[in-house]
Amino acid sequence: MLIEKYRQSLVPLWIKVFGWLFVGLAPVAIISFLIANFTMSGQTNIDFLGFKLTSLELTPNLIAIIVFGSYFAFCTYGLLKGKSWAVNTGLVNGYLGLGLCLYYIISHSSSDSLTLRFEPFLQIPFLIVMHSIRKRWSDAKNKLY
Fold it and tell me: Rounded CA gap, 100 and 48, in Å?
């Protein structure tokens, strides 16, 4: 338990705030999705890392949103709880999210316009932090015993 507390102290406040928002909003998104699916005409508007969804039909975009959203929530939970695997999955999470956003930006840009997304402005500092705490995170077990 002491190790998890030490690891939690390595996570900056801004990551904790966004993490708890992400974890807290995930159930709200799922419940909203289910309510919309069963009570409305099946119309919705979801945009996650460039995956856009306007209908609740089972599409590759819906599957991608569910898979990536679940993985991101899993990684966030690990960071917030100081789990041993959290920084490594956080790094995968950061690079995956950054790659998906950059792919979206490049694929949806034209000679007339450029679409910028907000996510990379958080993912790049997130990756820098994950790299900076990685060694201390993994060494926590040796340090505290």
Answer: 10
Per-residue pLDDT at 113: 73
Q: What is the predicted pLDDT for the residue at 12?
A: 95
Length of the chain: 145
Q: Which residue has the tokens 């450029």?
A: 114
Please report which residue ranges of 45-118 form alpha helices under DSSP H.
Answer: 60-81, 86-107
42 SS3 class: coil
Bridge partner residues of 51 (DSSP): 48
Beta-carbon count within 10 A of 94 CB? 22
pTM for this predicted structure: 0.80
Task: Extract the tokens encoding 6.
Answer: 């030490």
Nearest in space to 18 (alpha carbons), one of 132, 139, 118:
118
Write the burial class of residue 130 (CB in 10 Å: 0-12 exposed, 13-18 middle, 19+ buried).
buried
- The 10s digit of each residue's pLDDT in 26-82 is 777 777 777 766 776 656 677 777 777 777 677 787 777 778 888 888 999 999 999
Question: How many Å apart are CA 43 and CA 28, to the nearest integer?
Answer: 17
